User: What shape does this take?
Amino acid sequence: MRMDGDLFESTWDALTNLYKNISIGGYIIVDDYGDWIGCKKAVDWYRDFCGESAPISTFDGVWPNQKGKMGHWRKSKECPLSIDEVNKLRRERQQDKSFY
Assistant: This one.
């Protein structure tokens, strides 16, 4: 799956709705992982909530100032939580200002 959502909400929506369709061993590529803080936060939170521990590799974009712009990993497990459970954890974390 390749995502180019830029922001938290669009990245979150893609992960919560499409991640379950990726086979174990499939690749997830996120164009703006190292470029947009909201995108990175959505990816990191979702992976944390689902217990995904596969390492994220980053690679550069096409322009000189795009170091570590993109991220990718191989899916190592299914998310054991439902969309509702993941969204509940998200709401709780958003209320905890120590995560900002």
